[in-house]
Fold these 3 entries.
Entry 1:
Amino acid sequence: QVQLVESGGGLVQAGGSLRLSCAASGRTASTYTMGWFRQAPGKERERVAAMSRTGGSTLYADSVKGRFTISRDNAKNTCYLQMNSLKPEDTAVYYCAATWRSYDASTYDYWGQGTQVTVSS
């Protein structure tokens, strides 16, 4: 069982930055692949970024490459999403997720409650 809690969302001006954090329960965070997803009203949920257990492999959506960075600190059981050069189209609810599958998996087993990110134009 894994519980995930996101934090760090909020309102930011276009061009600004936010850092999202995802705290995972337990001391076995390194067991799981971690990912970030987002969903805006009227749009389907999309995978923003994912990172392997060791942090050696990452995936990014084309829309965020060069602007977002996923990282993890297994000692703290925490995953991060650094978001720079934010655009209004980045506005969405962001979800932290975890899976025991590979980092390139399309399905995840555990989900956080989500945190709202709003980017004003």
Entry 2:
Amino acid sequence: QVQLVASGGGLVQSGGSLRLSCAASGSIFGLYALSWYRQAPGKQRELIATIFSGGKLNYADSVKGRFTISKDDTKNTVDLQMNSLKPEDTAIYYCKTTTWGGSGSWGQGTQVTVSS
């Protein structure tokens, strides 16, 4: 299984930007999908962005037009560019792999805090 390490979180003002990165211990080539999730205290984990093996992208309505997911198979990384950040975006952000068999691996999460 691929081990993931997420980084890039921090404190940012409303309207600002952050770029999150997720580094994999092994190859991400051939995976069914790579995703970013987020979870605020007391709330369920929410899928916010996915990039599929063929390059198709999906976003939650709450982040469409503001966030962009991308991957680099040569570097074994998946990134999340976050623009026009809002206080509602405050959460722990997690990256996740999904195999063709339906299994996956989770990163440890990185905290994003957006001040109002």
Entry 3:
Amino acid sequence: QVQLVESGGGLVQPGGSVRLSCAASQTIISIYNMGWYRQAPGKSRELVAFINSGNYTYYVDSVKGRFTISKDSAKNTVYLQMNSLKPEDTAVYYCNADLPPFKDYWGQGTQVTVSS
């Protein structure tokens, strides 16, 4: 059973930065598509960024130029560097590992609150 554990969330001021980490219990980072999602209160879960096995990256328009997804396969860890944070970035951030047609995996989430 693959487990994903997010860390790095917390309270940050607008304009600040935080780096989220997603540690996988198995050596899957180099094979699976790894994504970061977020869900704000009253809103649906949104794909923020992903990086696939070929290191192709995608970002939702609202975070382009501010967020960077990266991975370290040797450490089985995926990162989301979040800069120039805005209050609208406040959400629970979830790590996802996906390799269709097989079952995907989710972390339990980490809260990021952007407020002064």
